[in-house]
């Protein structure tokens, strides 16, 4: 790949605390949390426009100019489609709004394509189904949204806590049987909701209840990693030492990875 003198993000690892707030603000999906630090996935995936700068509370991000791999728009779109398809429209809108700042190789034909041409769709696997069989809900509490659950709710006492990203139950068909059974649940979205409010609420729950274990279930998209950060930060603030497991679900509804 050709090296060119251009702008690119620089991450100061000494300042980065791994909060993950920069990840959903990157329209290219080029940032990930790796070993507790924000990392640039690939030089050619960063457009150098600095959309992520304002989201870092530690000031660990800045834009510099140096010889790096040329920006690869085709590669970015392929990467987003594979890892974070929900970011694709955001990425294209970002490029259109900054068109006057970009060199010619950024202005790929895909950026002006009709939005309907970038939707993802896959065929459902055909299976024999007994329509007379109905599954029972394993939910045993209300409310379930992390903003709404009372931190002193009696159902948290001596419980196994399941912290779940909002999208998971829609993607994973056997969610009730495989994850929810015999557990209490709190759900949230680290991309759309206030991470610090979530940390404070979860810290209270962990402090006030004798939680036996914590399982975090998130989607594979980068912004979902913020929920794992929220959980681990709350656990640290609570001073508790309990087993933690993270499960990652892919967008087609299968388990991608177990951590812990």
Report the radius of gyration as a whole number of Å.
21 Å
| Rounded mean pLDDT score | 83
Total count of strands: 9
**Which CATH architecture of the largest domain would you pick?**
2-Layer Sandwich
Overall spatial form: globular
Give descriptors for this structure.
260 residues; alpha/beta; Alpha-Beta Plaits; Rossmann fold; 2 domains; five-stranded mixed beta sheet; two-stranded antiparallel ribbon; 6 helices; 9 strands; 23% helix; 21% strand; globular
Description:
With 260 residues, the protein is α/β, with parallel strands linked by helices. It folds into 2 domains: 3-118, 2-Layer Sandwich (Alpha-Beta Plaits); 154-259, Rossmann fold. Helices cover 23% and strands 21% of the residues. It has 6 helices and 9 strands. A 5-stranded mixed β-sheet has the order 6-5-7-8-9. A two-stranded antiparallel sheet has the order 1-4. Strand 8 (244-249) and strand 9 (255-259) form a beta hairpin. The longest helix is centred in the C-terminal third of the chain and has 14 residues, at 195-208. The radius of gyration is 21 Å and the shape is globular. The two termini are 37 Å apart. 33% of the residues are buried.
